[in-house]
Amino acid sequence: MSTQHTDILCNEPGPAGRVTADAFATSALVFDQEGQPLAPCSAERAASLVQRGRAVLVSRNPLALRLTDLAATPSGIGGSAPTKRRRKKDKRIEQLKRRDGVDCFYCGRPLLDDFTIEHLLSQADGGNDKFANLAIVHQKCNHAAAHLPIVEKVKLRERLRILPTLSGIQ
User: Fold this and answer.
1) What per-residue confidence (pLDDT) applies to 170?
2) How is domain 7-72 classified at the CATH fold level?
3) Nearest to 19 by CA among 50, 40, 45
4) Which helix (H) or strand (E) holds 125?
5) In the structure, what pLDDT confidence band is assigned to residue 71 with cuts at 50, 70 and 90?
6) Do 23 and 2 form a contact (C-beta atoms < 8 A)?
């Protein structure tokens, strides 16, 4: 470990509220914004993340930090930068949103963070990953559709979209 003295702010009381990188253990525990554990990183990397405002120091012993920015998850923290597969999925989601809008295919309500890609004709029934066979839906709606045949999925969509109209909720 280097003897570099990088001062970083600390959320815990201590001498001047600062600690140096060489005072850290050899690695730091890293947590995402929701508190889920990620891969540990080096003390130098932890100091750099806190110094740049990408993370906050949660504790000194054991050394732990919480990321404040999703962009702060490069290689060595929480895995790696988005994989080719993840970039392809993100691109597919954006294409589906441009095609279908930002509402759930089934219920018609706005999509927030709880959405997934739905295969209209399930892969178990011979469906593929082609654009025409995909839609973005809420996780809850996806579970409701489960492995229904495509005709039943269309009926489910009609039921879910008519329910708010009947009850006066939009």
Assistant:
1) 46
2) Ubiquitin-like (UB roll) (3.10.20)
3) 50
4) none
5) low
6) no
User: For the chain, first and last CA: distance in Å?
Assistant: 59
Strands 134-138 and 115-119: antiparallel
pLDDT average, residue stretch 19-34: 68
Among 25, 100, 93, 98, smallest CA distance to 57 is for 25
Domain boundaries, the chain: 7-72, 84-167
1 or 80, which is more confident?
A: 80
Q: What residues contact residue 137 under an 8 Å CB cut-off, 6+ apart?
A: 104, 105, 106, 111, 115, 116, 117, 118, 145
- Give 103's pLDDT tier (boundaries 50, 70, 90): very high
Q: Which of the following CATH numbers is that of domain 84-167: 3.40.50, 1.10.20, 1.10.30, 3.90.980? A: 1.10.30
Mean per-residue pLDDT over the chain, rounded: 77
Q: Is the dihedral of CA 153, 155, 156, 161 positive or negative?
A: positive
Closest of 45, 62, 47, 54 to residue 10, by C-alpha: 47
